[in-house]
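Dear all,

This email documents one entry for the complex benchmark we are building for the journal club exercise. For each entry we list the sequence lines for every component of the assembly. Then comes the predicted three-dimensional structure of the complex as a token string, followed by one or two observations. Please use this as the template for your own entries, and keep the labels exactly as they appear.
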Amino acid sequence: MSRRPYEREITSEWIFRHPRYLRYMVREFSCLFIGGYALLMVVGLERLSQGPAAWQGFLQALQSPASIAFHLVALAFSVYHSVTWFNLTPKAIPLPFISAAHYAGWVAVSIAVLWLAGVV
Amino acid sequence: MAKSNKPLVWGPFAAGGTLTAFLTPALIALTLLAGFGQVPEGLSYERLHGFAAHWLAKVALVVVIGLSLWSAAHRLRITCYDLGVRADAAVAALVYAGALAGTGAAVLYLLRI
């Protein structure tokens, strides 16, 4: 005799039942763009390892409309990920000003990256 | 007590979520600038190749790419479940394997630099 536990059916229409659920899904969908950007970095490393001409080709490909569109959407999603992540930190680390400290760290890290890359 | 592999999966997710929250927007800004034709000095072949040639930079790049991919994979797995995909074991195997493959590829390319 087999045991047949009841499994409640789960569909995806619930995400439209409340704006809060939709915001949750937008936050979770940020993973596609953060993961996608990490894969873009892997491709970049491949081109870099193939020499100057291959790297130049990679930089050229970054100028395509598809690449620009991906970057703009990915930037928006990644900023949304940062904001939601830092807003949750008081739940993980219950210290005063912990969110503010993370936002300050985010600004510092971003400026450091841009500075190291010679942008600012 | 039953053993659980949850911390093994969740630990890199939390680490990756934190790392990407601090780092990813700035990194995207760099290649976006390159996309607009304003290639940052640090993305010139000589500068970036010199940077990636150092072992410490290789380690940093693997950590950033590996944790980004792992946390994205974990979130994608949870999202699939939320959207009603019940084959969690298959989804988990697929997304984690993808994250590991991407990280492995990054290691391979870095060793050639």
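Observations: The radius of gyration of chain B is 17 Å. Chain B has a mean pLDDT of 94.
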